Amino acid sequence: MADMDCIIGKWKMVSSENFDDYMKALGVGIVLRNLANVATPTIEFSKGDDDTWTMTTSATFRTVEIKFKLNEEFEEVTGDGRKCATTFSFENGVLTQKQVGKDGSKNSELIRTFKGDDLTTVLKVDDVVCTRVYKKV
């Protein structure tokens, strides 16, 4: 297993492909989709003393913070308000976030691949795939 410390730091989005279709597939409304489509988020990963990780996603209109431990399920309320049973795993520079939707919301998966100063995130729901690329800042 590659050292998870490679994810520590801030990452600024530099490109996004198919994000609107991804949000539509999740059932996100037009107003929130329009706001999210023009945002250029920054993601920051940090590690606490007790193997708890924090992922903070900051955009113009909203900041969302998630605290997690690897391979431990927790309830997440996503940026678009969905409730999910979420689990993070890490292997060979890849951080995978599996979201199992509650209350009728859809399942989704976010696969973050870290290579040096590059972070590529692939978001999947149903048959829709979105790719977002970040650079370390």
Automatic annotation (TrEMBL):
Keywords of this entry: Lipid-binding, Transport
PROSITE patterns per record: FABP (PS00214)
Cytosolic fatty-acid binding proteins domain mapped to chain residues: 9-26
Single GO MF annotation: fatty acid binding
Domain of life of the source: Eukaryota
Keyword flag DNA-binding: no
UniProt-listed InterPro entries: Calycin, Fatty_acid-bd, ILBP, Lipocln_cytosolic_FA-bd_dom
Record family assignment: Belongs to the calycin superfamily. Fatty-acid binding protein (FABP) family.
Record-given protein name: Cytosolic fatty-acid binding proteins domain-containing protein
